[in-house]
Amino acid sequence: MTYCIAVSVNDGLVLTSDSRTNAGIDNVSVHCKMHMLPTIDDRKIILLSAGNLATTQAVLDQLRRDIKDNSETNLNNVKYLSEAAEYLGHVSVAKQHRHASTGQNSFYPSATFLLAGQIENEPHGIYLVYPEGNYITSSKQTPYLQIGENKYGKPVLDRFLKIDTSLDEVARCCLISMDSTMRSNAGVGPPVDLLEYRKDSFVLNEYYRFEEDDQYLIQMRRIWQEKLSEGFAAMPQLNSCDAQPFPSPYQ
Amino acid sequence: MTYCIAVSVNDGLVLTSDSRTNAGIDNVSVHCKMHMLPTIDDRKIILLSAGNLATTQAVLDQLRRDIKDNSETNLNNVKYLSEAAEYLGHVSVAKQHRHASTGQNSFYPSATFLLAGQIENEPHGIYLVYPEGNYITSSKQTPYLQIGENKYGKPVLDRFLKIDTSLDEVARCCLISMDSTMRSNAGVGPPVDLLEYRKDSFVLNEYYRFEEDDQYLIQMRRIWQEKLSEGFAAMPQLNSCDAQPFPSPYQ
């Protein structure tokens, strides 16, 4: 399994991904799921990937070859991020379809992507590209997208992320969301990659990689645990409400 | 959908359930999922239910009829909670099977239960009864069981619940877990039922029902939100770690 988050707020982008891949429970390995594409200087495009590893690698290779070969459509000549998402969807569907088999032991090597970045004077943004090739973007009300094991880490994002949250706060929120998911699901694991991109900067110089025993993560977990405990302690006692009779067994 | 939690700690039991049921997204109604069985005074047995509503009602009716008819096996004559779980599994499989259909439009009205309580001098406990009729119980390391939409609310349980957590703290933790799930999944909704059972008491006088606009829940959410914000603010700045160069596009 996988867990990746992309957040687009007023100040820019925050991307977070785990690194655990598995083919069955007994074949677990480490693969970075955050990929920068080698584009020209007027743009930055980063992909996060979930799903079949062969498909994601085939897609990345194709995108890079298309750039090198200056193909009719490639990430260097698209003018909009939505165009990049559409092109990514097209490549992804082709690669999945190529290795699909039908019949009794049918197999479909599906993959899902988050595409994030900024092109020239266009606004920064994030796109979720489905295995079917179509895509969605985020909104002011829901400034994030997730792929992979998204449920465990969703509540903390829902409670905290707003369109005007600062990039550093978004980053800490994403690390908590990732840490919650790693605790509750063995299919998601370190190292954790984190990238903050300040809008209009066109540089990727705030990239962090956290190993399992990273001191920052350990400190973060300790502080979080303390604040949870304080939160429970600060809540009013339940007996301050009135207990009610238990509903009759025949209701 | 549904979300129910049963926790068994040293001091006793805490049970929590939502009340939203739906047959399709356009047929949503309110049904309490916490059921006391009308047993004799030497025992208390409570069920939480998830899944097909017709099956859960058929199972509850059968359990009540078996008690009234003093059947060979019923909840008044089982000596152990595990025996009650086995009997519940047996009844559940029979009710599901009766209304199942096979073929092209196959239908299986499956249901999952949490059984909790205490019988005479036996220890208190909780059991999760699968649709297949088999069951598991909790452990000292993982003192809780969940049914329904379990992922959203799992991290806060994993972070906080220990075998020696007090009943009141467990209750607050379960309410946060439930609140997180209701925020992130529209299939889970109020009213929320909460029951605390102190071991060896054989009384159910700490039962609470929280409507959507309950003042306690509103206060709880506000305090939780404040503590989350404090937690993020208390975490060290990310630039206290060293940012790294972004991995080369060809890695």
From TrEMBL, chains A, B:
A matching Pfam family: Proteasome
GO CC annotation terms, alphabetical: proteasome core complex
InterPro entries: Ntn_hydrolases_N (IPR029055), Proteasome_sua/b (IPR001353), UCP009120_prtse (IPR016545)
Gene Ontology terms describing biological process: proteolysis involved in protein catabolic process
Entry-linked SUPFAM superfamilies: N-terminal nucleophile aminohydrolases (Ntn hydrolases) (SSF56235)
The name this protein goes by in its record: Peptidase
Lineage: Bacteria, Pseudomonadati, Pseudomonadota, Gammaproteobacteria, Methylococcales
